[in-house]
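Request from the bench team (R.T.):
"We need a structural guess for the complex before ordering more zinc ion. Sequence and SMILES attached. Just send the tokens back."

Command: build protein-zinc ion structure.
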Amino acid sequence: MATPGGPRPGSIPPNYNPNSVSDNMKNLQINRPNQPPNPANAPRGPPPSLGQQPQSQSQPFSSPFSVPNRPGPPPPGVVPRGVVPPSSGPTPHGTLPPFMVANRPVGAGGPPGGNASLASRPMPPVPVPSTSGPGPFASTPSPTPPPVMPVGSGAMNNGPPMFGPPHGTPGGPQYPSSGVRPSAPTRPPPPPPQTMSSFLGGSFDNQPRGPPQVAPPTFSAPLRAGMQPSSGPPTFSSQAQPQGPPFGAQPWQMQSQQNVPPPSIPCSGQPPRMYGMSPPLANQQSMATISPATGPSGNAVSGPSKIDPNQIPRPVPSSSVLLHETRQGNQANPPPPATSEFIVRDTGNCSPRYMRSTINQIPCTAYLLNTSGMQLALLVQPLALPHPSEEPIQIVDFGEGGPVRCSRCKGYINPFMKFVDQGKRFICNFCGFTDETPREYQCNLGPDGRRRDADERPELCRGTVEFVATKEFLVREPMPAVFFFLIDVSMNALQTGAVAGACSAISRVVADLPEGPRTMVGIATFDSTIQFYNLKRAFQQPLMLIVPDIEDVYTPLQTDVIVQLSECRQHLDLLLESIPTMFQNNKTADSAFGAGVKAAFLAMKSTGGKLLVFQSVLPSVGIAALSGREAEGRTNIYVGDKTMAIEFAEYQVSVDVFITTQSYVDIASISVIPKMTGGQIYYYHPFSARSDPAKLYNDLRWNVTRPQGFEAVMRVRCSQGLQVQEYSGNFCKRIPTDVDLPAVDCDKSIMVSLKHDDKLQDGTECSFQCALLYTSVYGQRRIRVSTLSLPCTPTLSNLFRSADLDTQFSCFLKQAANEIPFTPLLAVRDRVTELCISILHSYRKYCATVSSSGQLILPEALKLLPLYTLALTKSIGLRSDGHVDDRSFWINYVTPLSVQLAIPLVYPRMISLHDLHTRETEGSVIPPPIPLSIEHVSDDGIYLLENGEDCLIYVGDSVDPDITQKLFGISSVGEIHSQFVLEQYDNPLSKKLNEVLNEIRSQRCNYLGLKLCKKGDPSGMSFFSYMVEDKSQNGLSYVEFLVHVHRQIQSKMT
Ligand SMILES: [Zn+2]
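Reply to R.T.: structure attached below.
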């Protein structure tokens, strides 16, 4: 029997360690050199630039089930042309074949198990990748940026991270022996089954709370110090700020005395302990000042001439890997910038990968927060990929009683709950309630007031743990892992090679799925009708089943449409092989996308699962047909009927759509279902049969093999005085307090905006807890709980000093994206700029000590805010000249975007390539970034620009032909092909470029699409549109913008 609260007895669960899933990263072949296409696959279409050979090694999914003789082409004669019975017409799916089942499917009545939202189904019993024990430093290579160690040689490779114990992370046993603890929990019987919401929720919302105070503006401001402290240019002086800004401690303390004190947690003078209060940090304030062209009278001069563009704030990439302890000396330790590389040691607060706050000190009052112009929000990414050198998350099994929770607010036990009365009671750090400690969980307190066993129990000393969910959290048996592929085979899709690309990608990815009985697959195609395929083994060939009714859809032969993978691998392969030829003469241009999705959903309804759709044209017929919105001149974004999406979410069906198109498809409308089911949109436009299949394959592969969970529910709790105002991300929300996630993965982040409903007391801490109940891909029901405790402050300057630029800007970005559908773009841009100005004005007015009005004064932590704000106003989403679909895709990309990818999206990284071979590597394979200005782009240079999603390579028009020959195999710029596939040639320069690109793909966990750009054509214009520091039709130059900001601040001051 498990010890309550203890680690699982014996050893790690036989088949699951949350971190081991990150080994899946090995599945992402993002950093492999180009491989020759597999000849056996040749008929499948253009060779992807990434071969699949490394696949079979060390994949959690496939290794045990390795598929040595996966398919080559089918034996001659076996591939049936017409997978269709002879009775059908000239086109394979022209008529309803006699075997078609016309009756409606049964069993599609209600959510399985009575409460689908609580249901749990697991993925296949998958052999776990070598769980190499809880060694703190796993040595598995991962796609996370390989550590960049200042290794002398400077040579980098794709090998395992060079981190090791020398780095000082303790490697002690993580599972203390359980001998000291009482063995048999004698807890009362579990409460009656509850609904999902009550597990995460509980009655906290019933607590009396103070009347809501003035809510911060929904669109308040951003920021924090993203980049390094200025190693900066002379104009910037980092100053220590004197103690008494207008918002000093005095007056505010008086106010705070009126507060009802939060649960008292005495702390004076005791040794460090988790629940202790940290004294306010030293009140030092650094700031950057800049003198933008001021005249003698202090007025800003119009011309930017006096500002040296080389001395204005720009991101400075960190060159070394930081080791971050989440708490030090009993104080929360502000996290490193999200965009830097760091290794986290969880010493009480959760890793910033899982949860970050826009400000690392919490303002005591709403008034203080509003005065700052900033906003208070969390970005949570509950399944974020850890760094390979970080300790694994520990799994805690409380046995039948389940994890200890506050009986009032249902908050989970965490390091900040304070035990009192010899450990017999504990005080909740969220609602302040004093609760009885379950008898079997009691433990004496030491002289420091902590439980004596605190360091042995992960839930009492770690910011993140995973609890084994008890039966109460289950409503039905874990579901099988269902992957349903739905492919558009209308004429356009065929002709552009999209069908071949999709079939090839699916076929290869299926090879990576586990063979176990829990893995189920299904496949369907659609044009103006829907074609299912019976994959049962009994048939020699896959049998096509046509659903002609696209207005009132049903699913044929439900039980044979989704089949165990082990029963149909071969058939599936043949089918995927033959689909492109089966439909090659298809003249149907219409696409019944909505009907196809609905029919597939009906087939999956009884289990839930992942629906992966490949779509190539505007849905034109059947359910949810769309019109050419753009053609009609409408530019606003669709916010359509969500009924279908809500139904999908209820049955735990998550939808991802891979859009491989040449034209407008109305992404705004298509994205409604993916967004609300925890899925996402992939966009390949214009789809190229030559250069896109490799990305399509890698995207699909990462989609199905990355760390993820199913049928999840998430809730964030916070201490009294604050409450969650709103969640934003890809999910479905049916009750106000929780978000439903049919699927959730390591890449998805959710923004949680907070508001005050009372005052917080100076000297206390405020806690936040994110609880994610989910089913792992290995079929276990788990509750991942991350807790963050931050100090409260009554001092405005503390807010600025502890502002988190990356997080603030991410929230900024997401809010702008949320507004686009409802607000004119110009207004969104103005709003974004105004928010930036408000924050800087507040700082200038209340915190800055420099009296000269001629200086623009930026808080050190937020000195890049103006640059990022300017870049945001010029981004694809906010530009007026963008295409509707591009903008809609941008919105969809931004909504679940992680903090570390938000910055490069608006301020991409540009590096030079022509001099790669002459450059000495200094720790990193990737050369230092260049400011995004045309001044830094030379006609005889070659540059790479990447934003985490796309990668552009610009070739100047007078580049040395020898270099283009070496890099691209072409002798002049004129030969550049837009559908470009990078190859590796046998010379150092080419090898270097491939290394750099692999490193970037690895850092971004994304197989970035690659485009070659040249001057004077649309590709070149596309490249230059990223030069956000330059003046353009889309806005001011960076220098002009600083002047503008400065003037606005000055006018507010007077
Ligand atoms: Zn509570």
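Two things stood out. The first strand starts at residue 287 and ends at 290. The radius of gyration is 29 Å.
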